[in-house]
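Here is one chain, start to finish.
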Amino acid sequence: MQTFDSDGVAIAYIDVPAVGGSGDPVLLIHGFASNHAVNWVNTLWVRTLTQAGYRAIAFDNRGHGESRKLYDPEAYGSDIMAQDARRLLDHLGIGRADVMGYSMGARISAFLALDAPERVRSVLLGGLGLHLVEGRGLPDGIAEALEAEPGAPAPNPTAAAFRTFAEQTKSDLRALAACMRGSRQALSRAEVAQIEVPTLVTTGTLDTVSGSGPALAALMPNATALELQNRDHSTAVGDRGHRTGVLEFLAKRP
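Its structure:
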């Protein structure tokens, strides 16, 4: 991996060229407690995009993977993390890219599309629907579970699952707890309506975390919804139908 300085924070990233040469850049932003490899490499997204002729760029969000770990929740605002994405485009000399995020990464992508629309050719929001504006989604207790002593009971099954996932990915649990406390901002319906770039909202029909994808897409002037049948929050990301739908969307967007 390579690294760059994002206003004093070291951010690690990969930049994989399209098979056969140059291609339109797609910036990939992973979800909470994940990293670029788990979210985008292991699920075949990088291979799918590069084989289809796109340049795939994926980075570890601050507090995750090989990027710098921070322990103040105020360092993890969605708008701040969106600026990490923008600065990576600056670092690579990319004026505009298709931006694809999953779950927390979708939230960051939405903030980037709202704050810097001139940098976003299209935005692809996976694993995040109407909860972007309703402010709901993951239950409370996740940060506390991440900070608990090993073996301590978690307050709910979702918190326990995130603790297990974070341990499996060898994450910094204290940094993730700070991120969970600092990165759950919502956008208003009026703000979402200002996202005018071509948008794809993808959610699984069994996803209880994201909220309705079609309902979110209906708030945007240029959005399409894709629902993945019998997929939940963890299985939708790497679903073959997800990859097919994204490639079809990218082929049609201006």
